[in-house]
């Protein structure tokens, strides 16, 4: 999966420069071609962040096991929430 993000990091400047240069060579003005190239680069970034979002090791193993089998501790699949009920549980703010 890390190779995907390596490709995305290479495609961002390639899309920005390549699309801008191509549109400029076709006859579009530079001030109109740059936003189009930036939009294509932004689409690559959005795809990498939201469509194929990076996963940490716990999420990757949970996503890989779709059988729904209980974990070795018998507690079932992890939901990713911290123990104690929520993000502010045990923070000491009363």
TrEMBL record:
Residues 61-81 have a biased composition (Low complexity). Keywords: Membrane, Transmembrane, Transmembrane helix. InterPro entries: DUF8015. Residues 60-94 are annotated as: Disordered. It comes from the Archaea. Residues 82-94 have a biased composition (Gly residues). The chain crosses the membrane at residues 7-26, 32-51. This is Uncharacterized protein.
């Amino acid at each position: 999966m890390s190779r995907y993000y390596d490709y995305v990091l290479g495609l961002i400047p390639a899309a920005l420069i390549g699309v801008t240069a191509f549109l400029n060579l076709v006859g579009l003005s530079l001030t109109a071609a740059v936003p189009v190239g930036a939009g294509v680069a932004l689409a690559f970034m959005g795809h990498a962040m939201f469509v194929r979002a990076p996963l940490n090791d716990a999420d990757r193993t949970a996503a890989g096991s779709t059988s729904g089998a209980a974990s070795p501790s018998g507690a079932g699949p992890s939901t990713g929430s911290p123990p104690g009920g929520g993000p502010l549980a045990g923070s000491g703010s009363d």
